[in-house]
Design goal:
By secondary structure, the protein is of the alpha/beta class. It has 9 helices and 7 strands, in the order βααβαβαβαβααβααβ. The protein starts with 6 loop residues before the first strand and ends in a 16-residue tail after the last strand. The protein binds zinc ion.
Length: 279
Amino acid sequence: MPPARRRLLVTVAHPDDETFGMGSTIAHYAAAGVEVHVVCATRGEAGEIAPGSDATLDSLGEVREAELRAAADVLGASSVRMLGFRDSGMTPAEENGDPGVFVNIPEADVIAAFTRVIRDVRPHVVVTMPPDGGTGHPDHIRTCQLTTKAFKLAAHPGYIEPGGLVHAPAKLFYKEYPRSRMRVFLEAITSERPEMSEMLRKSGIDKFGVDDDEISAEIDVSDVLEIRLKANACHVSQGSPFDMLPPDMIPEVLGTDYFTRAIPAWDGGEVERDLFKGL
Ligand SMILES: [Zn+2]
């Protein structure tokens, strides 16, 4: 009997996070024969609509879900699950009084939803968004926090809420970006397009990410660059942030993916070159 296929679960907040954040990781592992499953908390209804898209405020959720499914196909993902919560927008959680949006859904309900997926997919490795959300978006931050809780509870026999057989994935990673790399790319963007500097400064993007010595896994994903660029292009309603970069920097920017290992906590030892190392 052939050995069981390895399984990777990717949890994200909005359609496009799977591609702009983790597309190369998905494509790299799918190409290596790993089953890659994607779960997305919301349909991204509160996103801004990029010029050139015919999406409307009413259709945006539907359009973005279709873009996610198209991108996941390009990347080679085995499945996409939508949890169906509503996008909170960039409004901070404490100011967002709408009970229907993702940040205001009771924590227990969100944890149950993520746990159900973990017990169903039974991944060896889980990858989610970074603790600062990568952009500070409250839905990204919540996806990280509650995926982490679900990761632990999925293995707990006393946690029966979502049903399903208990399952303990071996490792949980946060997809990160080293600040030193971010600085190089921001300089490249602003030297090419000085008009972008004010917008980038205001976004505070340079404050996100981690110091280089916190990176615990560094994966060479240069093998899937073409696939990644095709998946980026599926997200017409959002526009790819990588379109801002000088084209000759693209292979460098998208050639390596970086992670911190949350569980088991990394102790500063050897940097892993494969998320499945040791499994
Ligand atoms: Zn997002």
